[in-house]
# Entry
Amino acid sequence: MIQLENLTKQFGAGTPVVRGVSLRVADGEFLVLIGESGSGKTTTLNMINRLTEPTSGRVLIDGADVRAGDAVSVRRKMGFVFQEVGLFPHMTVGENIGITPRLLGWPANEIEARIHELLSLVQLESAAIVNRFPAQLSGGQRQRVGLARALAARPKIMLMDEPFGALDALIRDELAADYRAIHDKLGLTTILVTHDMTEAFLLADRIAVMRDGALLQVTTPKELAAAPADDFVKRLIEIPRQRAEKLAKAMQSA
Amino acid sequence: MSDLFSAGFANLPDYLGQHVLLSVSAILLGLLISLPLAIAAYRMAWLRGPSLAVASVVQTIPGLALLALFYPLLIIISAFTTDTFGFGFRALGFLPALLALTLYSMLPVLRNTITGLTGLDPAIIRAARATGMTPWQSLTIVELPLAAPIIMAGIRTAAVWVIGTATLSTPIGQTSLGNYIFTGLQTENWVLVLFGCISAALLALVIDRLLALAENGFAKRSGWRLWSAFGGIVVIVGVSLFPLFGHAGETITIGTKSFDEQYILGSLMQKRLNGAGFATARRDGLGSTVAFHALTNGDIDVYVDYSGTIWANEMKRTDQPGRAAVMAQMTAYLQKKYGVLALGSLGFENAYAIAMRRVHADELHISTLSDLAAHAGGMTIGGDYEIFSRPEWRAVTAAYGFHFAKQRQYQSDFIYRAAASGDVDAITAFSSDGRIAQYDLKLLRDPKNALPPYDAVVLISAKHAHDRKLIGALKPLIGAIDLKTMQQANLMVDRQTDKRTPESVAGWLDAKITH
Ligand SMILES: Nc1ncnc2c1ncn2[C@@H]1O[C@H](COP(=O)(O)OP(=O)(O)OP(=O)(O)O)[C@@H](O)[C@H]1O
Ligand SMILES: [Mg+2]
# Structure
């Protein structure tokens, strides 16, 4: 279980960008964190694996404060996926995927086996791709490799910051669906950040809405649709429906 | 011409070996300092400004000045360590050259490493942290490999600079390919100058190409490129250094100052020592005081100096007891203070003297400086850039009451021509210069002994002062070269047509002495 307790982050002397965020994510749960640009989603996510240290408040994993040990071993126990992917351009696909196991000192043959296992998990043709460099992949392939890299050391927790944001709509839906299946199959606990309410509705067990550094509402998609906490949340969840209606209209008149 | 070329090639193993040893050491030491400094500056932004500023300032100091600065600095430090800790070190030759070149190599490596690292995509660095790398792992696994092509480009620039600038280490007593250039410039032997420039340029070019291959290897992550580049460098360095370790037994190092006569005498002593079975090395083109310190330090084992120079500069004497007394007192002084052996005079003086066109002098019935004093009021005197501010000039003007109408200064090569063409009436000359005979100039006698004697003396370092075999090899040269012979020998190197190398003139002199 992931617990955020009254997390606050202030950069320098500015106003806090994350303010008193408290949240519990149960084992196996898929939580989507949604909100406007600049609302503090990335900052919140980064405090979970200590890429950013909070100004105050705590993050507990299974009851243990992540700041009790060292940051590096905390990070090795969680998978992290970025929108920019951040594959190491001087390493092959295989080397990229194998990096965390290598840092953890796994034996080479085990790493090798794991790389192939992961490539098939993210539905990439292993033999064709394992020795390529990131520059020789498509955007969708790159994001799948990024996902495989995050999963390599068998983390129980996955943190994903707009992982599908840079992909075209088709690939994006496909990859999102594939990931949800992986989440279920491996029994992961996932926190995924997005701008896209449709994506949130399709993927999430629960949705957390964030605004100006604070959580407005945390609940199931169904509940959120039925009882939005305020006008902002209401407008946010209206967006997919309005778009669907506009689309239907446009297609009729065409 | 072929004589000039073979002289060039004969010294190549020694010069190239020393040049490569110096350059490689300076580059490696430079990397050892600038890479960690650059990494520290990358991690701590406040360090960037100051470290780059210091390296840039160093870069603006001309190479020669930077090299020259380290010599006095090291003398001071060496004197300090001798007083405090009881040991000193060689202030001349390898060490100052190494330090200066090391400093010189730092800027490009520092700048490129900092630029290369700070320019990395932040997303990749974040990914390195997120995958669980420690800062050190992130640096070695991700950041440095990604910045490697840019860092390599900096190393390349540094290597080319160092190899080029290393040629300037000759005057501070470090043998390099610059020996060709400095010897060539002194003896107006342009073939030799060219030989030096081309060999240094070729070396720089080859190393540059190999490092470019390495840079490319890093950029393209191509193993064979990296291996062949580093393999090539190892082979070149190995082959260059090989001759340095080839000498069996002890090597006698012969020093020379930076003018023709010194090169001829250096080669002459070298022939004699080689003939007696000694392995020899040369430290050519040393500054005047540098040469003396090199001998007392044991950096060189033998060289020729002039009694008056040691009398005035080293013993700080201003009195003039006469030629024989100066020799005797100097010999005793060197023996007592440094254990240095003054083996004896070669038989001629290279003294400050005043000369006139023979016809002109005879016309006015001038043969001594006293005769000259009577006519000085209507005359112009020419000299080199140094003489009119030297104590010798003050001594001679005081003794004879000279008041010349005009003084003109020339680069030393042009003084004799100025006298011959009548641009000036009298000149300050060096008595053993071949051009005195060539232009038919007359050396005026000094009846008041106002000018100190400058006997050419063979000096031997304390370490070899009792080496009978070495003394036996050089002893036959003592008293064997008269002024006329030395003038002739100097002229063969100085003259514009039918120019000969110091080595070949040394051979001529050697044969003349033996007969
Ligand atoms: N290192 C930093 N220093 C100063 N301010 C920062 C830093 N990182 C983020 N911020 C600020 O904190 C606020 C929240 O940023 P954050 O990246 O968490 O937002 P976000 O919700 O992820 O936005 P987006 O959807 O655009 O990614 C922003 O105003 C941002 O400018
Ligand atoms: Mg963000």
